[in-house]
Amino acid sequence: MLNSTFNVMNKIWVITLFPQFFDAFKSSGVIGKFLENEVEFETLYLGDFSPKSFKGVDSSPYGGGPGMVLRADVLEEAIKHILKTEKISKDELEIIYTSPRGTVFNNDNAKDLASSFQENRKQYVFICGRYEGIDERFIEQYVTRIYSLGDYVLSGGELAVMTITDAMLRFLPKALGNDQSAICDSFEDGLIEGPVYTRPSNFNGVKVPSVLTEGNHKLIDEFNQNKKLEFTKKYRPDLYKTYMRNKV
């Protein structure tokens, strides 16, 4: 039973051929706990919406070519099931698909999804593609957002959907043990995080920087900021150039 601070409309659906992929995601770590207590997260097996089960969810592409394509009519039946179950209209859904053509997903997109999820009170539906993708007509008629994780191809959309939902959920209230954690992470100010240290104070002859153990918070803040700049310049020169350009 959810004990949520969110509106009853807030719910996440995932349409997939492999719902078992999400079992650990829904039950592990801080995100698993958050989903258990705050936000409904439900997976739908696409095969349940085809008379032939998994054998009827796809077909060969018109015009020829390798692989199979997920059928628009089967995907539509899954959407109709959601609309009927929740007694809502199509306009009350945000239907999200992952594809190489999509906007490359980043921290700003994660915050935008989290904000829209709270404010618009739409239910989110993630479509996990497989094989050669899904019928273009379904995308044109139903999909409202398309994201890509980067310039590479995965065997299915499940990993991409888990990545996107994990990044999004971290920005919702109560998702993390400390609500300040998300806003102190990498990318929030255009930089990546610097080094972090914990016990033991001496590891293989390397000591923790003394400034971090002396209790002067002003110096600690200066140290951390300088290290963020140093690490960003070293590991993400693209971000560093953008950061420095925006400071001018």
From TrEMBL:
Its EC number is 2.1.1.228. One of its GO terms (biological process) is methylation. Keywords: Cytoplasm, Methyltransferase, S-adenosyl-L-methionine, Transferase, tRNA processing. It catalyses: guanosine(37) in tRNA + S-adenosyl-L-methionine = N(1)-methylguanosine(37) in tRNA + S-adenosyl-L-homocysteine + H(+). It is found in: Cytoplasm. It is an enzyme of class 2 (transferase). Specifically methylates guanosine-37 in various tRNAs. Homodimer. Belongs to the RNA methyltransferase TrmD family. This is tRNA (guanine-N(1)-)-methyltransferase. It comes from Halobacteriovorax vibrionivorans. The gene is trmD.
